[in-house]
Amino acid sequence: MLSAICILLISIFPLITATLNLTLPHQHPYPEAVVQEVQRKVNESISRRQLLDTTTNAQCQTGNPIDDCWRCDPNWSKNRRRLADCVIGFGQDAIGGKNGKYYIVTDSSDRDTVNPTPGTLRHAVIQDEPLWIIFAADMFITLKHELIINSYKTVDGRGAKVHITGNGCITLQYISNVIIHNIHIYNCLPSGNTDIRSSPTHVGHRGRSDGDGISIFGSRNIWIDHCALSHCTDGLIDAIMGSTGITISNSYFTHHDEVMLLGHDDRYMPDTGMQVTIAFNHFGVGLVQRMPRCRRGYIHVVNNDFTEWQMYAIGGSANPTINSQGNRYTAPVDANAKEVTKRVDTDEGEWSGWNWRTYGDVMVNGAFFVPSGHGMSNQYAKASSVEPKSAVIIDQLTLNAGVFGAPRDNSVSTSYGGRTTPGAGGSGGAGTTGGGGDDSDFLGMIFGNGAPSKLSSTTTILLSLLIILVLYITTNHGG
């Protein structure tokens, strides 16, 4: 009997591994359809701009489909929720607080993380009901610890100058449907080992955070738009632990080493279902690497302006699908850093089959993109769609990247470990492990218990095997 059980376990082990590796519950089943829809909307907006006389309304008909969706309405401030209809890409289902009330933040303080003061941003974001959060005036919010945002929230900084800085910064953990729009986020430092309220009914003890600008952990339907991020301790935006359905658009990134991490660990199979759209962003001065750095998943990089990197722009490991369309890549002066792409700690014999594609990209100052892959990958169809024609007007598409009306920080400095270091030098590489966060696994997210499980991935597989073994014995031996 024991030998039969061992044979059974050996035979079904690959099946269990493949099952865990296959999908996330909320990933889009046809990522290429999403990619093609993005390109269709871009081309429609560009065509509309070319047909109309744009001199009469310079803020409208830019060719950027997100901005044209709401900025053409002169009374947008009376219908702020329309913004939720303008998202494109994999985060297209992120409705934020569209179906909720307005919450006006009137107090910029952050004195108590357990009992937040009504009127503060912390009090607004932890509520259980959907809320569209706006600001009564310009605010500098210095956080005491992580700002943990609950589901169905929009943080809308339009009409005010809103700066978020301090300890922990923004955390989205095991939640869904959040929009963060028109916010400055910078100088974020590690913090924690304290109690923080995450909902009106739950206070939890938090370990030490990494100091990300925005940390997305096991979450879905997230849209980050028109933000300006710089000078954080770890990443400016990190999405890990099975997060999916994300769009990062129209934002302005400067002065940082490891800009954006997508994927927790090379061995973390659920991140195969991560799907992220990166569109119309400006990657500016003082950036070194990770724009983004990808593990597994499907990453669509479309119509961005990369004006600086010191090591590489787009990197990856563990066979991510990277679809680069209509971007402008401007290489640095350094002759050893002209390549846009970097396969991290992987031999060419392995990465030559990875699905990395470039369509309609513009290469400047000797930049070059090394494509790879042939035919169909195991997880996704070949990255292909109508070749974009929009790279020729990349200046127009990214004209308003960042916070509306804010001056852009083009001084030469780079952030290392939360410090601002003069000069454009930088060092450091990207390893194959790490990525922040604790080692919670996928089961908590799948079954929606609202709390991270402490099981390791090995334990997950063993438990899955045990369940199947019990079902097998029960079925064949009558319990």
UniProtKB/TrEMBL annotation:
<feature type="domain" description="Pectate lyase">
    <location>
        <begin position="138"/>
        <end position="335"/>
    </location>
</feature>
<dbReference type="Pfam" id="PF00544">
    <property type="entry name" value="Pectate_lyase_4"/>
</dbReference>
<keyword id="KW-0472">Membrane</keyword>
<keyword id="KW-0812">Transmembrane</keyword>
<dbReference type="InterPro" id="IPR012334">
    <property type="entry name" value="Pectin_lyas_fold"/>
</dbReference>
<keyword id="KW-0479">Metal-binding</keyword>
<protein>
    <recommendedName>
        <fullName>Pectate lyase</fullName>
        <ecNumber>4.2.2.2</ecNumber>
    </recommendedName>
</protein>
<dbReference type="GO" id="GO:0046872">
    <property type="term" value="F:metal ion binding"/>
</dbReference>
<dbReference type="InterPro" id="IPR045032">
    <property type="entry name" value="PEL"/>
</dbReference>
<keyword id="KW-0732">Signal</keyword>
<feature type="compositionally biased region" description="Gly residues">
    <location>
        <begin position="423"/>
        <end position="434"/>
    </location>
</feature>
<dbReference type="InterPro" id="IPR018082">
    <property type="entry name" value="AmbAllergen"/>
</dbReference>
<dbReference type="InterPro" id="IPR011050">
    <property type="entry name" value="Pectin_lyase_fold/virulence"/>
</dbReference>
<comment type="pathway">
    <text>Glycan metabolism; pectin degradation; 2-dehydro-3-deoxy-D-gluconate from pectin: step 2/5.</text>
</comment>
<feature type="transmembrane region" description="Helical">
    <location>
        <begin position="455"/>
        <end position="474"/>
    </location>
</feature>
<feature type="signal peptide">
    <location>
        <begin position="1"/>
        <end position="18"/>
    </location>
</feature>
<keyword id="KW-0456">Lyase</keyword>
<comment type="similarity">
    <text>Belongs to the polysaccharide lyase 1 family.</text>
</comment>
<dbReference type="GO" id="GO:0030570">
    <property type="term" value="F:pectate lyase activity"/>
</dbReference>
<keyword id="KW-0106">Calcium</keyword>
<dbReference type="InterPro" id="IPR002022">
    <property type="entry name" value="Pec_lyase"/>
</dbReference>
<keyword id="KW-1133">Transmembrane helix</keyword>
<feature type="region of interest" description="Disordered">
    <location>
        <begin position="412"/>
        <end position="434"/>
    </location>
</feature>
